[in-house]
Specification:
This protein has 2 domains: 3-138 and 260-305, 3-Layer(aba) Sandwich (Rossmann fold); 140-256, 3-Layer(aba) Sandwich (Rossmann fold), CATH 3.40.50.460. 42% of the residues lie in helices and 18% in strands. It is built from 12 helices and 11 strands. Strands 3-2-1-4-5-10-11 form a 7-stranded mixed sheet, sandwiched between helices. It is elongated. The relative contact order is 0.17. It binds 6-O-phosphono-beta-D-fructofuranose. 6-O-phosphono-beta-D-fructofuranose binds at residues 11, 125-127, 173-175, 226, 256.
């Protein structure tokens, strides 16, 4: 094998650059050249690519986002789009492709593999909802950002006196997965947490908050996963039941920013190296992951068809810590 390519697709995630860097280095150590494809599958169809040298990727490890940029393409979802991409891959001497992204990106990779291009998926999404791996690239940084933000709410709220009880409702990302919400509640010390995996009961939540007020705590920080409810809907209910004026914040895209944590850089590097190894072993349609600290791999369809489930243990841990 002489030349492979890498692209990033879907939502960007901190640590994608660490992954690109490690792919280039792992390939180079096996005398393989790496082409970086810009703008995801759109760039592949349009031939937007260039050779990534080790020198070029040396200092991108600490940069958030993706130097290759990311895009969602409607054309690529058609047969014509996939054929275009294959023509570009062939004319640029691409012998195999590594796709860094989420389940939608992996689906695109599988479409390409039907035309004989070997593909490997590397899971990257702050949502951490991809099956076959305990961690996806980006989630650790996102959880750290949210944890840090919760601490900042504590900083301002701590100044309140108990005759002005206040509730802060903080909406966090994750699509239909509550991992960011639960992990940051545990690490950041929130008072309540709502996730899509567990149906919430507004009366249970409000009596929990009320008990804390009665125990003398002047404020409550509630973390709400976007897949469970919007904070605005929740505010209406909380304000009615508790007869207060709660404060809302939607953290939004800042959760995808910030320098990738050491953990994200490590995970990204481990997965990248396993991905290149798989290609050298002649494998295709595999997805790499990390389980118990070790790089593993599984069929890419697991990452496409299944979802990572939040464990009962994690939910229980959160339930104990919000008391
Ligand atoms: O999948 C990552 C993610 O950040 C989700 O948590 C969020 O719902 C979505 O992407 C936001 O997408 P966009 O960047 O297109 O607004």
């Amino acid at each position: 094998m002489k030349r492979i390519a890498v692209l990033t697709s879907g939502g960007d995630a901190p640590g994608m650059n660490a992954c690109i860097r490690a792919i280039v280095k792992a390939a180079k150590s096996n005398n393989i050249e790496t082409l970086g494809i810009y703008e995801g599958y759109t760039g592949l169809m349009e031939g937007k690519m260039k050779v990534l040298t080790t020198d070029y990727v040396d200092d991108i490890v600490g940069l958030s986002g993706t130097i290759l940029k990311s895009a969602r393409s409607k054309l690529f979802r058609t047969e014509e789009g996939v054929k275009r991409a294959i023509r570009q891959a062939n004319s640029n001497g691409i012998e195999a492709l590594i796709v860094i992204g989420g389940d939608g990106s992996f689906r695109g990779a599988c479409d390409l593999s039907k035309y004989g291009l070997p593909v490997i998926g590397v899971p990257a999404t702050i949502d951490n909802d991809i099956a076959g791996t305990e961690y996806s690239i980006g989630v650790d940084t996102a959880v750290n950002v949210v944890t840090d933000t919760i601490s900042k709410f504590h900083d301002t709220a701590r100044s309140l006196i108990s005759d002005t009880p206040r509730v802060f409702l903080i909406e966090v990302m994750g699509r239909n997965c509550g991992y960011i919400a639960i992990a940051s509640t545990i690490a950041g010390g929130a008072d309540y947490c709502i996730v899509p995996e567990v149906p919430y009961d507004i009366n249970h939540m409000c009596s929990h908050i009320k008990n804390k007020f009665e125990d003398g705590k002047a404020y409550n920080v509630v973390v709400v996963a976007e897949g469970a409810s919007s904070v605005n809907d929740l505010k209406t209910q909380v304000d009615t039941v508790l007869n207060i004026e709660s404060r809302t914040s939607i953290l939004g895209h800042l959760q995808r920013g910030g320098a990738p944590t050491v953990t994200d850089r490590f995970i990204a590097s481990q997965m990248a190296i396993r991905g290149v190894e798989l290609l050298i072993e002649g494998k295709s349609n595999r997805m790499v992951g990390v389980i118990g600290g070790e790089a593993v791999d599984c069929g890419i369809y697991k990452g496409i068809n299944d979802k990572n489930k939040i464990s009962e243990k994690l939910i229980k841990l959160k339930d104990i810590l919000i008391i």
